[in-house]
Amino acid sequence: MSKTQRTREICALAPIVPVLVVDDAEHARPLAEALVAGGLPALEVTLRTPAALDVIREMAQVPGGVVGAGTLVTPDDVRAAKEAGAQFGVSPGATDALIAACEAEGLPLLPGAATASEAMRLLDQGYDMLKFFPAEASGGAPALKAIGAPLPQITFCPTGGVSPANARDYLSLSNVICAGGSWVAPKQMVLGGDWAGIEALAREAAKLAD
């Protein structure tokens, strides 16, 4: 069985996975509620702020949400994310130690790859649902389409530079299930508590696969 079956199911929940950098855990629950209400239930909280683990703890309690931890780099990251309630993990790349930690913790992983060799190595380890990162810097949708031609058994979630302007270019590819994007939760809207505005952005993003 593919080691990424659960990851694939999560990625298939909506066309966009919000990539969230949250500085204040008090924003976590209303932000998650707004995104879930807007039709984006899979949420990636990046471990880039001191509050990230507390944010995951709060978001994990929001009904209908599936909260994951992004920017997993070390086995310690994996253990901390799992303990905080993360239901999946996302990494910018992949190491044997990181993969082993996720498997030991039972944390579904979306590992990152930017080249055919990286993708093939992960496929060899049983991972056929990958993050294409950094998407735009790695050649964008044309590059991902080209990588997909000889590797049709791998599907991707492109992240990094994905925006409303280019999201459909990625989502139209046969080897893309969803894309990761940060535009659905702009920092100023989060700081200002504009949850209705964020829900509206989420609703627009949820329609991108139509």
Name the features.
210 residues; globular; alpha/beta; 9 strands; three-stranded parallel beta sheet
Number of helices: 10
Helix- and strand-based class? alpha/beta
Strand order of the largest sheet: 5-4-3-2-1-9
Shape: globular
The topology string of helices and strands comes to HEHEHEHEHEEHEHEHEHH
Query: Which oligomeric form is depicted?
Result: single chain
Unreliably modeled segments: none
Number of strands: 9
Summed over residues and divided by their number, the pLDDT gives a mean of 97
Rg on CA atoms, Å: 16 Å
What is the percentage of strand-forming residues? 15-25%
Alpha carbon gap, first and last residue = 30 Å
The biggest sheet amounts to: 6 strands, parallel
What percentage of residues falls in helices of 4 or more residues?
40-55%
Description:
Helices cover 40% and strands 16% of the residues. The protein is an alpha/beta fold and 210 residues long. It is globular. The model has no long low-confidence stretch (mean pLDDT 97).
In summary, what is this structure?
The chain is an alpha/beta fold. It is 40% helix and 16% strand. Helix 2 (28-37) crosses helix 3, helix 2 packs parallel to helix 10 (195-206) and helix 4 runs parallel beside helix 5 (96-105).
